[in-house]
C-alpha cells in the first residue's frame, strides 16, 4: 500500500540494519507525529523497540515515579542535620542512594530511546550524570570522614535542585534558566555600569558624609528592583534627620535614588525584557519549524503517488491515527477524517496531513444537550408556570446585580465589630442567602454544564460557600458544647467570607481582561515559583551550612539575658537583636526558607547581612549580596518581564482574532463549536433560549470540535499560532541543523518598520 | 510663471477677499512649507499680514518674553505669604496683573494668526482664557476681602502652571499630560481592582491582626511602584517582630506583597506603557501625515504643467526657499537645488518638492579642513620629527589606556585617607597629568574640531579639569593665607575628582549603547522634570495653604521643649516628631518642594500624612494619598515606560539602519558626509590620516549635507522617520479631518503577526 514514496535511506540513516516492515513504517511515522504533537525537540531512535520504550518513558507512571523520587530527594534536607525532624545518617544516606539510582535508571532509559550522539550532546544529560557522580563522591567522603569523627560540609546538597530542573517536563523553568544564561552577558555590562555608579556615589558619600556615620555600603539595597528605600528607616538615626544639618545631603540622596533606582532599574528591566522577548520568540519559532520538519518527514514515509501528487491513503491514515491515539472513539476518528479529507476522495493530501498534529490536539466534545435532571424526573412541576418564572428570574441580569449588592453589604458588615449580636446574626442571614442563590442556580441551569471544566467562578463560589457553611456549623457546635469559639475556625470563616467578595469582580465587564490575563498566566507563574524554589533551596542549604545555630530564637515571654541577643553575645547592641529579628535564622530548612522569602519581598537584606556578619565573618555579607542579585535583581525582573509580555500580548490581541488554518476549516465545515457556546453555565447568555423550544437544542446535538476560547490562551500558545500562521503552507522550512541553531539575534528584522520597533 | 496649477478657490476658502498676487501665493506656500518644517498642526490664516504676524509670533524675542513672564508669574509664590522673601501684597498683585496682561496679549496675537473657528476649538486657548479670568476674579476677591480684614484662600495660585503647560513649545510636557489623560480610563479599572484588593487585604488584616496594633491603612505605601517596603521599618514595633508570634502573619504579608506590589505594579506598568506607546505612535503618525498633507497643498499652489506632469519651476522654487529661509547662503541654496533637481532640468517635480521641508531641516556644513593653528604659525617645528612622534603617540590607543589606568589609580587614592601628606601631594601629580593630557590633545588635534558641538566628553573633560584646577589653586591660596581649608571648596574639588572617573566609561565599547541612550534621552528626561515641576508646584501651593506654620523647625542645638515636638504640642509622642522630621514642613515654597521631592523618592508618605493629620485634620491624609497616586503611581510609571521605550527602540535599531529617502539621495549624489566623519576629535579614527598627505584633505573640502549620526537620535526622530518611510511617495494621505481624528486604537493591526505582537 505504501511502497513508492517511502524514504529509502531510512535504514542507513539510523545506522541499524533492521528490516523495514509495514508496521514499523507506521510506528516511525506515528512517533514523528506524536513527537510533533508534544513539541519536544528530541530526535529519537526509530526501531520498534525504541518506540515502545519511548511510549513507556512518557507513560504517566514513569513520570509520577520520577517526580516522587525528586521530591523525596529534595525533602531529605528536612531530615538531615540541621534537621527539622532528625533521622539517623544511615537512613538518609540509603534514601539518597536509592533516589540517585532511580535517576540513573531514568537516564539509562532515556539513552535507549535517542541516538547516542544526540544523548551525549545534550547538556541536560551530562549535567545529571555529573551531579550523580558528585553527590556519590561527597556522600562517601562525608561518611568515611564522619566515621573517623572529622566533620565536613556536605556541599553536594546544594546541587539537588539540578534533578528538578533537568528531568521533568519543566519547559518553563528551563526556559527561565536559559533566559538568565542568555541575558547574563548583556546584563553584565549594565551591572558593571551600575556598580561603577554605586562606587562613585559611595566614594562621594564616604568623603562628604563619612564622619557623619552614614556608610556608603548601606546604600546597596536601596537600589533593588523592589525600589525599596529602607535607608531612612532601617538604620537609625537614618538619613532624613541628616537632612536637618545639611541641605546638600538631601540633594545627594535624591540624585542617588533617581539615578540608581529609577534609571538603572528601568535599564535593567529593559535589558531583561528585551532578552526575554528575543529568546521566547526564538524558541517558539524553532518549535514551529521543528514541528513542520517532523510532519514532513512522517509524510515522506507514508506517502504514495496518486496522479500528479503524493498523498497518504485513507487506510494508512486511519492506522496512523489509531497508533498515535489508541483510545480514540470511532466517531471522533471519522470527524477528523472528514476535516482532513474534505472531498471524501479516500486520501489525505500533504497540506492536510501536515496539520494532523494540530488536529489531534483539538478537543472533540459531544454536544449532548441534556435536560435538567428535575425536568426528566418531574416534567410537570419543572415546566409549571411558577417554576418557569423562577428560572426566568434567576437567568435575569438583575438577579446577579442583587447578589452583588448583597455581597457589598456583607463587606460592610464584616468591617463592623462582630461583638454586636445583630451583626453576628446577620452573618447567618448572608450565608443562607448565598446558599439559596446556589440552590436556585442549580435548579435553573443544568448541573453538569454549571460545573463545567472551565467554570472557574462557579466552582470557586460553590467551594467557598460549602466551606463557610461547614466551618460555621462546626463552630456553632463547638460553641454550644464548650461555650468557647475556636479561634482557628473563626479565622478560616473570616477569610472565606472575605474571599466571597472577589465574586463582585467578575460582574464588571472591564475587569475581565485583567482578571482573565492574570488567571491565564497563573499556571506559568507557578512554574516561576518552581524556579524561585530552586534558587531558595540552593541558598537555604548553603545558608544552613554557614549560619546553622549561630542565632537562636527564644520565646518572647522567656526573659533570659540570652533571649535579647538571640543567644549570641556578638549580637549585643546590634540592630539585628534590637529589631528582634532572632527568628530570622538558618537553623533548619523551614526557617531558612522563611528568611529567604522575607529577604525577597522585604528590604532588610542589609540588616540581616550585618547581623550574620557579626556572628560569623565579614564574608557572610557576600552570601546576602549574591542572593539579592540572583533572586531580587534577576529573577524578579524576569518575573516582571513575563507579566508585561503577557499583558502586551493580551492587549494587542484584544481587537483581533488569531485563528489557525484548522480552526478556519473546522468552522467552514460547520463541525466546530466555540468554547463560549459550550458553557451553558453563564446565566446572561441564555435568557429566553428555553422559550424557543427544543428544536434548536436537538439540532445542536452531536460530535463537535471544540475551538478553544481566545480568553483562555496562554502567551506561548498565542505566539506559537501566530508564528505558525506565518509559515506558508508549502514552506518546507530550513534543514534540521539550521532549525536547531536558530539564533535569537536573527529575530530582529533588518529594516525595522514603524509597527515592530516600538 | 505659475498660473495654471494655482488653486483657484483659495480666496473663497479663506473667506477674505484679498487680491491674489504672486507674492502672496509664494508666501502662502512658504507658510505651508515652514509649518510642515516645524511640524506644528495649526492651520493658519493665509493673508500676508497673518503670515507676517506668524513669523513675528515665532520670533525668538517673543518666545523669550513669554518664558520670562511665565517664570516671573511662577516665582511670585516665593514672595507671597507664606513667603521666603516677603514682599507687600500690592507689589505681587501688580506683578501678577502684568503677567496676566502679557499672557492675554500673546493669546490675542495668536488669535490673529489662525482662523477664528480653529482658535475657539483649541482647548489650550480656552484653558488659558479661563485661567486668566479665574485668577483675576480670585485676585480681586482676595484683595477686597483683605481690605475688610477677612482672610481667604488664594486658590487660583495652584492654577499657575497652566500657562507653562499651554503656552510654549513644550510638546513633551503636553504629550505626557495627554498620555495621562488618555491612560486614565484604562488605569482606572486597574486602580479599582487594586483598591479592591487592598480592601480585601485590609479587612483581613483588621480582623486577623486588629488587636495586634497593625493598621491596615498602613499598608498603602507599600504598594507603590517604588516597590518600597517600609512597613517593617517605618512603624515600630514593625511587622517582622509580629512574625515572632504568628507564622501565618508572615505568609499573609508575603502574599500581600507578591499580589499588590509585584503583580499589580507590573500590570500598572503594562497598562501605562501600552498606552504610552499607542499614543506616541498615533501622534507621530498624525504628524507625518499632516506634514505630507501640507506639502501637497503648497505644491498645488505653486505647480505648473510641463508636459504630462505638474512641476514647480526652478525660479519659483528659489523664491520659495528664499522666503522660508531668508538667511540661507547662495552655495547652500545651490546644494539643495542640486539635490531637488538631479537632472538639472530647471524644474522640481512633485516627489522632490514634497521633501523640501526635510531638506531644509538638514544641516549643511562647510567641510573646510583647517590646518592646526600651530602648523600654520610654525610649520617647521610642528612638522618636525619629534613633534610628529608626539602626535603619533597621542593618537595611539595606548595613550587612552594609560590615562584610564591613571584615573583608576586616582580613584584608589581618593578612597584613601587624605590626611596622609603623600596622598594629598599625589593629587597635585594627578591634576598636572590631566592638564598635560589635555594640552597634548590640543597640540595634536585641531582645537575647533576637538571642541565640536557634539563632542560631549571632550567638553566634559576640559571643564572638569579647569574647574578642579581653579578650585585647587583657590584652596591653596586660602590655605596659605589663613591656614584653614575652605570646606566648601574642598567638597567641590572632591566631587570634581570623582566625576573625572566617569571618563573611564567611554573607553569601554560595550557601555556605549547604554550611555549613549541615556545621554540621548537626557533632554527629554528634563522635560519630564518640567512635568514633575508642574505637579510639585500645584501640590506645594495647596500644601502651603493647608499646612502653613503648623510645623516649625528649630535648630538641633536649640533645646526648648517645643523643638522636640516641632513647635506643635499635637505632635507629642508621634512618630513624626520622634523621627525628627520637623524640617519636613510647608512653611515656604522651597521647603514644600523639598518635602514633595522626598515624598517622591523616599517612602515615608505615611509618616508625614499621620503627622500632618495630627496638626490639622484627618482629611489631610487625602492630600498625601492623592500626591502619591498622581506623582508616584502615574508619573513615575510614565517615566519608566519612557525609558523602556527608548531602550527598546535603541536595541531594535542596533543592527539596522533607518535612512530617509533624502539621506539616501544625498549619499548617492555624494554631497553628504556622515556626522562621525566630521568629528575629527575622535583620536582613534584618524590614526595615520596625517601621513597620507594633504591631497585627500583638499579633495574633501567644500559644502556638504551633514547626515546626522544614528547614535544621537532621539526616540521621536527615529519613530518619525520610520513612519515616514512607510508612507509611499505617491500616497496623498487621507483628508485633513481624517488625519486630525486619527485614533490610537487604529494603530494595532487587525491581524497581528509574530513580529509585532510581542
From TrEMBL, chains A, B:
Pfam families: Ion_trans (PF00520)
Chain ranges passing through the membrane: 55-79, 85-105, 187-209, 247-276, 398-416, 428-444, 456-476, 488-506, 518-539, 593-615, 622-651
Entries under InterPro entries matching the protein: Ion_trans_dom (IPR005821), PKD_2 (IPR003915), Volt_channel_dom_sf (IPR027359)
One Gene Ontology term of the molecular function aspect: calcium ion binding
Assigned GO CC terms: membrane
Superkingdom of origin: Eukaryota
Gene3D superfamilies with a match to the protein in the record: 1.10.287.70, Voltage-gated potassium channels. Chain C
UniProt subcellular location: Membrane
Keyword Ribonucleoprotein belongs to the record: no
Domain Ion transport: 54-278, 396-652
Membrane topology: Multi-pass membrane protein
Keywords noted in UniProt: Membrane, Transmembrane, Transmembrane helix
PANTHER family associated with the record: TWO PORE CHANNEL 3, TWO-PORE CALCIUM CHANNEL 3
Protein name: Ion transport domain-containing protein
Source organism of the structure: Microcebus murinus
Amino acid at each position: 500500500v505504501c511502497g513508492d514514496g517511502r524514504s529509502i535511506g531510512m535504514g542507513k540513516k539510523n545506522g541499524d540494519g533492521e528490516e523495514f516492515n509495514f508496521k514499523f513504517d507506521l510506528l516511525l511515522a506515528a512517533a514523528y507525529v506524536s513527537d510533533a504533537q508534544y513539541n519536544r525537540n528530541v530526535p529519537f531512535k526509530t526501531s520498534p523497540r525504541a518506540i515502545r520504550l519511548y511510549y513507556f518513558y512518557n507513560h504517566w507512571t514513569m513520570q509520577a515515579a520520577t517526580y516522587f523520587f525528586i521530591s523525596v530527594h529534595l525533602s531529605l534536607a528536612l531530615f538531615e542535620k540541621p534537621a527539622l525532624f532528625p533521622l539517623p545518617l544511615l537512613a538518609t544516606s540509603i534514601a539518597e542512594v536509592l533516589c540517585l539510582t532511580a535517576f540513573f535508571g531514568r537516564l539509562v532509559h532515556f539513552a535507549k530511546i535517542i541516538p547516542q550522539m544526540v544523548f551525549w550532546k545534550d547538556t541536560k544529560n551530562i549535567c545529571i550524570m555529573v551531579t550523580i557522580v558528585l553527590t556519590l563522591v561527597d556522600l562517601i567522603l562525608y561518611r568515611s570522614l564522619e566515621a573517623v569523627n572529622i566533620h565536613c560540609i556536605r556541599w553536594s546538597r546544594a546541587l539537588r535542585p539540578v534533578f528538578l530542573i533537568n528531568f521533568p517536563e519543566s519547559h518553563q523553568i528551563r526556559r527561565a534558566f536559559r533566559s538568565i544564561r542568555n541575558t547574563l552577558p548583556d546584563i553584565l555590562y549594565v551591572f558593571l555600569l551600575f556598580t561603577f555608579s554605586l562606587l562613585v556615589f559611595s566614594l562621594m558619600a564616604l568623603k562628604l558624609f563619612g564622619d557623619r556615620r552614614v556608610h556608603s555600603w548601606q546604600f546597596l539595597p536601596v537600589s533593588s528592583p523592589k525600589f525599596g528605600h529602607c535607608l531612612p528607616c532601617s538604620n537609625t538615626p537614618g538619613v532624613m534627620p541628616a537632612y536637618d544639618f545639611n541641605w546638600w545631603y538631601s540633594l545627594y540622596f535624591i540624585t542617588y535614588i533617581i539615578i540608581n533606582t529609577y534609571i538603572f532599574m528601568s535599564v535593567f528591566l529593559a535589558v531583561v525584557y528585551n532578552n526575554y522577548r528575543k529568546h521566547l520568540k526564538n524558541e517558539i519559532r524553532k518549535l514551529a519549524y521543528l514541528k513542520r520538519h517532523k510532519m514532513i518527514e512522517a509524510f515522506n514515509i507514508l506517502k504514495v503517488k496518486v496522479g500528479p501528487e503524493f498523498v497518504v491513503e485513507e487506510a494508512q491514515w486511519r492506522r496512523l491515527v489509531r497508533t498515535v491515539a489508541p483510545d480514540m472513539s470511532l466517531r471522533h476518528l471519522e470527524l477528523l477524517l472528514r476535516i482532513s479529507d474534505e472531498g471524501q476522495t479516500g486520501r489525505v493530501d500533504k497540506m492536510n496531513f501536515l496539520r494532523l498534529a494540530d488536529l489531534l490536539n483539538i478537543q472533540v466534545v459531544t454536544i449532548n444537550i441534556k435536560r435538567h435532571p428535575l425536568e426528566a424526573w418531574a416534567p410537570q412541576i419543572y415546566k409549571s408556570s411558577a417554576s418557569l418564572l423562577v428560572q426566568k428570574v434567576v437567568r435575569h441580569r438583575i438577579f446577579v446585580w442583587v447578589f452583588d449588592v448583597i455581597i457589598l453589604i456583607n463587606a460592610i458588615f464584616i468591617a463592623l465589630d462582630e461583638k454586636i449580636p445583630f451583626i453576628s446574626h446577620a452573618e447567618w442571614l448572608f450565608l443562607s442567602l448565598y446558599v439559596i442563590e446556589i440552590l436556585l442556580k442549580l435548579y435553573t441551569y443544568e448541573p453538569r454544564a454549571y460545573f463545567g471544566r472551565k467554570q472557574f467562578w462557579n466552582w470557586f463560589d460553590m467551594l467557598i460557600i460549602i466551606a463557610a457553611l461547614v466551618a460555621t456549623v462546626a463552630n456553632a457546635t463547638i460553641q454550644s458544647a464548650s461555650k468557647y469559639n475556636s479561634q482557628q475556625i473563626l479565622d478560616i470563616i473570616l477569610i472565606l467570607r472575605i474571599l466571597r467578595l472577589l465574586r463582585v469582580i467578575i460582574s464588571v465587564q472591564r475587569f475581565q481582561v485583567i482578571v482573565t490575563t492574570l488567571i491565564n498566566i497563573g499556571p506559568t507563574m507557578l512554574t516561576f515559583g518552581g524556579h524561585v524554589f530552586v534558587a531558595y533551596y540552593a541558598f537555604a542549604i548553603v545558608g544552613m551550612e554557614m549560619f546553622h545555630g549561630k542565632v537562636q530564637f527564644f520565646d518572647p515571654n522567656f526573659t533570659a539575658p540570652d533571649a535579647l541577643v538571640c543567644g549570641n553575645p556578638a549580637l549585643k547592641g546590634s540592630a539585628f537583636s534590637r529589631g528582634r529579628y532572632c527568628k530570622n535564622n538558618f537553623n533548619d530548612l523551614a526557617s531558612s526558607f522563611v528568611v529567604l522569602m522575607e529577604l525577597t519581598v522585604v528590604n532588610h537584606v542589609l540588616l540581616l547581612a550585618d547581623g550574620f556578619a557579626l556572628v560569623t565573618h565579614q564574608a557572610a555579607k557576600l552570601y546576602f549580596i549574591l542572593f539579592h542579585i540572583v533572586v531580587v535583581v534577576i529573577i524578579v525582573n524576569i518575573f516582571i518581564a513575563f507579566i508585561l509580555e503577557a499583558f502586551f500580548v493580551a492587549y494587542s490581541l484584544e481587537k483581533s482574532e488569531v485563528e489557525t488554518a484548522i480552526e478556519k476549516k473546522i468552522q467552514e465545515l460547520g463541525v466546530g463549536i466555540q468554547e463560549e457556546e459550550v458553557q451553558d453555565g453563564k446565566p446572561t447568555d441564555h435568557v429566553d433560549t428555553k422559550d424557543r423550544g427544543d428544536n434548536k437544542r436537538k439540532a445542536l446535538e452531536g460530535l463537535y470540535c471544540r475551538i478553544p476560547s481566545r480568553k483562555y490562551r496562554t502567551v506561548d500558545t498565542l505566539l506559537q499560532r501566530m508564528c505558525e500562521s506565518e509559515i506558508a503552507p508549502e514552506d518546507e522550512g530550513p534543514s534540521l541543523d539550521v532549525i536547531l541553531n536558530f539564533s535569537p539575534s536573527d529575530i530582529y528584522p533588518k529594516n525595522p518598520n514603524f509597527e515592530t520597533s516600538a
